[in-house]
UniProtKB/TrEMBL annotation:
<dbReference type="Pfam" id="PF00703">
    <property type="entry name" value="Glyco_hydro_2"/>
</dbReference>
<protein>
    <recommendedName>
        <fullName>Beta-glucuronidase</fullName>
        <ecNumber>3.2.1.31</ecNumber>
    </recommendedName>
</protein>
<dbReference type="InterPro" id="IPR008979">
    <property type="entry name" value="Galactose-bd-like_sf"/>
</dbReference>
<dbReference type="InterPro" id="IPR006104">
    <property type="entry name" value="Glyco_hydro_2_N"/>
</dbReference>
<feature type="domain" description="Glycosyl hydrolases family 2 sugar binding">
    <location>
        <begin position="13"/>
        <end position="180"/>
    </location>
</feature>
<dbReference type="InterPro" id="IPR017853">
    <property type="entry name" value="GH"/>
</dbReference>
<dbReference type="GO" id="GO:0030246">
    <property type="term" value="F:carbohydrate binding"/>
</dbReference>
<dbReference type="GO" id="GO:0019391">
    <property type="term" value="P:glucuronoside catabolic process"/>
</dbReference>
<dbReference type="GO" id="GO:0005975">
    <property type="term" value="P:carbohydrate metabolic process"/>
</dbReference>
<dbReference type="GO" id="GO:0004566">
    <property type="term" value="F:beta-glucuronidase activity"/>
</dbReference>
<dbReference type="InterPro" id="IPR006101">
    <property type="entry name" value="Glyco_hydro_2"/>
</dbReference>
<dbReference type="InterPro" id="IPR023232">
    <property type="entry name" value="Glyco_hydro_2_AS"/>
</dbReference>
<dbReference type="InterPro" id="IPR006103">
    <property type="entry name" value="Glyco_hydro_2_cat"/>
</dbReference>
<keyword id="KW-0326">Glycosidase</keyword>
<dbReference type="InterPro" id="IPR023230">
    <property type="entry name" value="Glyco_hydro_2_CS"/>
</dbReference>
<dbReference type="InterPro" id="IPR006102">
    <property type="entry name" value="Ig-like_GH2"/>
</dbReference>
<dbReference type="Pfam" id="PF02836">
    <property type="entry name" value="Glyco_hydro_2_C"/>
</dbReference>
Amino acid sequence: MLYPIATESRTLTDLNGVWKFMIDRETETVDPASPIPADRRMAVPASFNDQTVDRDVREHSGYFWYEREFSVAKALLNERVVLRFGSATHEAWVYVNGKQAAYHKGGFMPFEAELNEYLEPGKNRLTIRISNLLDHTTLPVGNYSEKKTDDGRLIRNVDENFDFFNYAGLHRPVRLYTTPKTYIQDITIAPEVDLQNGSADVNVSVESGGSFDEIRVTLIDEDGVEVGEAAGAETSISVKQVHLWEPLQAYLYTARVEGVNDGEVVDVYEEPFGIRSVEVKDAQFLINGKPFYFKGFGKHEDTYVNGRGLNEAYNVLDISLMKDMGANSFRTSHYPYSEEMMRLCDREGIVVIDETPAVGLMASFNFDISALERGDFTDDTWEVLDTSEAHEQVLRELVARDKNHASVVMWSIANEAANYADGAYEYFKPLFDLTRSLDPQNRPCTYVNIMMATPKADRSSELVDVLALNRYYGWYVQNGDLKTAEEKTRAELKEWSEKHPEKPIMYTEYGADTVAGFHSPYGEPFSEEYQQEYYQMNSRVFDEFPNFVGEQLWNFADFQTKFGIMRAQGNKKGIFTRSREPKMTVQYLKQRWSSIPEFGYKK
């Protein structure tokens, strides 16, 4: 799916701003054929939850409505008019002038609809009904329940099967764009790099809506110089003396695609892309043929007031903070991030592990690791959950959206699933096969392994290209006992290395909740001293293993969760506060990461 842009053949209209909003109490039917009886206003893009001081609204589970008016210039009505949502969390029904124009399920991917048949002269009314309900068929997974009050009112509830707040709403931009009736529908770019000769063959595939007499593809470098051209829907253009996209040293080319009829250019689209290679070989992760070391974070799209809504200022700040401390990467935990963030990472040279919203894939949570290893613990996750259809859908959408991004070097199929349970291999094998069949750039694939899925207990680690481990020795287990935690960390990494000597290993989560400003001469848990000692302990072990290729700590910044006695104003594992103030360990990590090169650290 192409990102909406304005070109000489396309227009782009922003529908962001303050919209009408209402919670649907389900006591009366809301008919989109008439204006909704809105009693509030909500900014878009943003979560609705933190834009109110009404707790009942903030924590609402169920349905809610957005509405606004828009106009389309008469001069554009002969064009193809498309309404596009960056996302709607988690399920959306879209109405234009009371008629349903679109439906989409899944809270983190874009969707769109052609509007021409629904438009009226002058003002048009856009209405969206959204659900934030989650259950055992959705991604993320939620535990759904409902009850009726004494007066007959239906109360819905979602108990999140994950540790972040279930923000909802129109989180990403809402836009109108136009194209000609015959248009460029999709572009796929798959560079093949010849590292020895410093060249690349850039394979470009173009899909069209309608028929063009000719499709022209021109490659342009960062100086605006044309470096190659070809004609056809399937082309390969050779680039000599290629500028490679490198971590923290981005270089982007532009593919200018033109659809031509009767000798005239009808439609134009320009797609930025980087040229680089990615490969897993001999227990190393290679970018452009060189062994890369991941330094960075698990993150969240989470800011004050905006919630999970797009906040481009924070995106820019976050990448600036990452670069300042020597980081080079992050994982889009635990869902696909905005297209705007992905494009920014391409431009800034930030390496991304791109993750689906497959989080909460477990029927029960048990920290008795020894029981799992003995096989004494039974788990019926893969009998209880029915998420395969949603999982396949989001993988198709994610690869279609992000396939051309140079920053994306690996797909993460899921986070912390019950990979220790019977049925895990049978569940994940088709998903890995699907992802590999969809990706034109043949990126490595992984899933993020939960702590209970040890080398003895895990049922499906053979599927992954990289062993991505979430481990909390010294926090959730061995809390306060870093000596034992270090021994456990070392022992498990040794065991993984022996089980899969051909696979690189990295940590995709490790961390300790830390209250900013809490200091302890004894290094007590929750103190800034303990957080730093915790990271120092892990660093010592990481450096002992030549096949250990990266450290992405948990978390970049404190983030919001549901209320609970373990979560005072959210999860405090950030090395920055939610407002991006540094905790003490930032200086230690800056010193460490600045001394670790992007390539060749484990010689």
